[in-house]
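pasting for the record
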Amino acid sequence: MKRLLTSCFGLGWLPAAPGTWGSLPPVLLFALMCHFGSATAAISIAMIVSALAGSIVCIKFAPVVIAATNETDPREVVADEFSGQAVTFLFIAAVTISNIWVAGLLGFLLFRLFDILKPWPIRRLEKLPKGWGILADDLLAGVFAGITSLVCLVLWSNWRLPGEHG
């Protein structure tokens, strides 16, 4: 059961790019909630709950997978990507989004870019012990991707942040 949870119900067992597959559920959740007109608060809460759930699973159960595979960051553990991707969308949930799919795709691509390239200081976080090292770099990649997505969306479409007038 622990490996099933850390793999996001088997997404981490897919042969090609398991981290990419593990990132998809928050993208779909975000896009569907936006599409059906969910309130900003509801979207934010869903992203927070997703990030927390994936984080708890990763910290609590990744050490079991590490021991079973003898790898410091097993490919099958994708609860970290799930969490990091949710963090990305937490940043852009408050933006008025007229094209949900552009926002979803941008957040997804930027998260994957930061997660794969791991610019400073993201890569340094991998050195943390056990599940913390697996998780922390993805959370920071989510922050980087969220901020970058937010800036791109605001600049690209002249969208206004809540509270701005005129």
